[in-house]
Amino acid sequence: MAKPAPCLATTRLGEPCRFSARKATGFCVNHDPSYREEQRQNARHGGRRSIELRTPISIPLGDVDLSERAGV
Ligand SMILES: [Zn+2]
C-alpha cells in the first residue's frame, strides 16, 4: 500500500503539517474546512465519533468535581 500523501497545509509554526491528507482535498482532518463542518454536524448529534476524531483536545479538569466521592 502506498503511503498517504502528507497534508498540504502548514502548522501555526509555519512547518509543514505531518498529518496524512485526505485524498479528496489534500488536507488532513485538521486543515480540511469541509471536514470541520462534518465534525460540527456530528457533534450536533452527540456522536461519540466526533469526540474521538477531535482527540487532541484539552479536557477542562476544572469541570470535573473530584471531591464528589469524598462527599458521598
Ligand atoms: Zn494538516
Would you mind describing this structure in some detail?
This protein is mainly α and 72 residues long. It has one domain (1-56). It is 31% helix and 0% strand. The chain is built from three helices and no strands. The longest helix has 12 residues, at 33-44. The termini are far apart. The model has no long low-confidence stretch (mean pLDDT 76). Zinc ion (ZN) is lined by residues 7, 9, 17, 19, 27-28, 30-31.
State the gist of this model:
This protein has 72 residues and is an all-alpha fold.
Topology record:
Blueprint: H1 33-44, H2 48-53, H3 68-71
Total helical segments: 3
Unreliable sequence segments: none
What class, by secondary structure content?
mainly alpha
What overall geometry do the principal axes of the alpha carbons give?
Answer: elongated
Q: Based on DSSP secondary structure assignment, what is the total number of beta strands?
A: 0
> Number of folding domains?
1
What order do the SSEs take from the amino end to the carboxyl end, as H and E?
Answer: HHH
Largest sheet: none
The overall average pLDDT, rounded, is: 76
Helical percent range?
25-40%
Which radius of gyration do the C-alpha atoms yield?
Answer: 17 Å
Which ligands accompany this protein?
A: zinc ion
Q: End-to-end span in angstroms?
A: 55 Å
Question: What fraction strand?
Answer: under 5%
